[in-house]
């Protein structure tokens, strides 16, 4: 057992391997700390993985650190260039308009964590923006990233959130916050597109080599490494999108600058979880055409990968790019089918399954049952054989087919129930839950802590918080979520 003591903040050893390889991707910046910063919440599990001593939280230096107001050796603030397709149109220069990279730290297990402050002030990439983030969107990102992690969906994370007394001007005047984001890497498709579109071929090659050597190590020495790299990104992306679809998560702004090269969920904005199974659901009220509707996500994943492919065409032949991209629909489909079958507790591979899954989803569309509650109740149904929903003809027909299909399985009902309860969450981050945390952040910050706990363990029963497993009460129906954050 390792008996080395936990680290103090000042013991963190910051480096930036990417900056050594691609220095021109970075611009040094300075932060604009918030006035009267208050630590709102810390993710203790992540703190533990970073091997930081929890006693650090009680010191004012921790809040100052989160506020971009504490420097120590090796810590250099910088932001990066990137570009990207926004709603289908190429924008040659985006970059970290309100994200400041602090660098990366390594824990004793050799895991690397990049640390980034979101909302700590203007950078050369802020364009018309103010470099700030509001409490509302910061709480949403903070909760959502811990929640997706708990749902076993690849994602960036957040160590802590602070708020300040500064006014921020959006549709109305709001208060400012900063989230300390943490990820193995914050590289986006847009970083690769930036180098490609500015014809920096040598830099692009360095960036791709760096990415492979550090994050795709399995084939770092392979002669066909670029193709294998692209294949791997396509696969990770297909798996990520299948995972989103299976839990009913809509990202909201799937521009290529919001696509992680590691297949992580990144840049939480106007995201949402579906209540009913509605493929036309658009969570971003600024997305008038529904480009990023829930049902459009899988093909958008393909479209975005095509743009990444275009950026990589100096390194990979057109034929290999096409062949690799063509695998995406099947990769997505196989993974999605597996996930939905798991949600139903079906483990055998049988010919009529495809048809049965379609019927299941059609039933959910026509009955308008709550997607999350349906699968949670179905988990209990394995042993109770009862559901609380009204017995519509569609649901009754489904249950007859389901019983028939279950009879072909070998798993016992009790095992299946336990398996299902471990993957069908009782709680998902419905917009109104984030809203409750937001409305109470100042007067009653414990509520944020409780919501954080529940959403970080969404498969537990938490009977005292039963209400939070249900769709929005009337008061919170029709909450509108826009891009402005
Ligand atoms: P997003 O839609 O949040 O992914 O952001 C798209 C681009 O706008 C990125 O380059 C962001 O850094 C930038 N951006 C978004 N909000 C702000 C802001 N308040 N201040 C500066 N830049 C911003
Ligand atoms: Mg973004």
Summarize the structure.
Helices cover 40% and strands 13% of the residues. By secondary structure, it is an alpha+beta fold. Residues 257-258, 267 line the site of magnesium ion.
What does this structure look like?
- With about 475 residues, the protein is of the alpha+beta class.
- It contains 16 helices and twelve strands.
- The chain has helices spanning about 15-20, 45-50, 60-65, 135-150, 190-195, 200-215, 225-245, 295-310, 320-325, 330-345, 355-365, 370-385, 395-405, 415-420, 430-440, 445-455, and strands at about 25-30, 40, 80, 85, 90, 100-105, 110-120, 135, 155-170, 175-185, 250, 270-275.
- The radius of gyration is 23 Å and the shape is globular.
- The two termini are about 45 Å apart.
- The chain binds adenosine monophosphate (AMP) and magnesium ion.
- Adenosine monophosphate binds near residues 94 and 130.
List keywords for this structure.
binds magnesium ion; alpha+beta; two-stranded antiparallel sheet; binds adenosine monophosphate; 6-stranded antiparallel sheet; 16 helices; globular
């Amino acid at each position: 057992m390792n008996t080395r003591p936990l680290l103090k903040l000042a013991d963190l050893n910051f480096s930036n391997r990417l900056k050594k390889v691609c220095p021109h991707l970075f611009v040094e910046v300075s932060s604009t700390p918030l006035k009267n910063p208050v630590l709102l919440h810390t993710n203790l599990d992540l703190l533990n993985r970073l091997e930081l001593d929890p006693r650090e939280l009680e010191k004012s230096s921790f809040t100052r650190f989160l506020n971009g107001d504490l420097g120590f050796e090796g810590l250099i603030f910088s932001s990066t260039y990137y570009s990207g397709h926004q709603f289908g149109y190429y924008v040659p220069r985006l970059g970290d308009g309100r994200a400041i990279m602090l660098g990366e730290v390594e824990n004793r297990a050799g895991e690397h964590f990049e640390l980034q402050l979101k909302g700590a002030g203007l950078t050369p990439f802020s364009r018309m923006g103010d470099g700030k983030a509001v409490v509302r969107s910061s709480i949403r990102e903070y909760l959502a990233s811990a929640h997706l992690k708990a749902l076993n969906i690849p994602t960036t994370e957040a160590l802590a959130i602070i708020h300040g007394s500064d006014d921020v001007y959006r549709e109305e005047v709001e208060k400012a916050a900063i989230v300390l984001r943490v990820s193995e890497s914050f590289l986006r498709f847009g970083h690769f597109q930036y180098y490609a579109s500015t014809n920096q071929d040598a830099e692009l090659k360095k960036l791709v080599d760096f990415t492979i050597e550090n994050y795709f190590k399995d084939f770092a020495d392979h002669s066909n490494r670029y193709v294998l790299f692209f294949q791997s990104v396509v696969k990770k992306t297909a798996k990520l999108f299948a995972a989103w679809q299976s839990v009913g998560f809509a990202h909201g702004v799937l521009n290529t600058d919001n696509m992680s090269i590691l297949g992580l969920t990144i840049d939480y904005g106007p995201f949402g979880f579906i209540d009913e199974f509605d493929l036309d659901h658009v969570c971003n009220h600024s997305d008038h055409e529904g480009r990023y509707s829930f049902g459009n996500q899988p093909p958008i994943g393909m479209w975005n990968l095509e743009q990444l492919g275009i950026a990589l065409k100096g390194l990979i032949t057109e034929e290999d790019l096409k062949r690799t991209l063509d695998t995406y629909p099947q990769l997505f489909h196989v993974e999605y089918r597996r996930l939905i079958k798991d949600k139903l507790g079906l483990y055998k591979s049988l010919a009529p399954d495809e048809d049965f899954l379609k019927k299941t989803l059609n039933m959910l569309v026509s009955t308008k049952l709550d997607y999350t509650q349906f699968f949670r109740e179905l988990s209990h149904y394995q042993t109770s054989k009862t559901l609380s929903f009204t017995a519509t003809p569609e649901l009754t027909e489904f249950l007859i087919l389901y019983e028939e299909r279950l009879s072909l399985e070998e798993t016992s009902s009790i095992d299946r129930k336990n398996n299902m309860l471990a993957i069908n969450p009782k709680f998902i981050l419905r917009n109104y839950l984030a809203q409750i945390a937001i409305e109470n952040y100042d007067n009653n910050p414990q509520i944020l802590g409780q919501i954080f706990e529940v959403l970080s363990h969404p498969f537990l029963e938490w009977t005292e918080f039963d209400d939070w497993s249900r769709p929005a009460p009337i008061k919170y129906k029709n909450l509108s979520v826009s891009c402005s954050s």
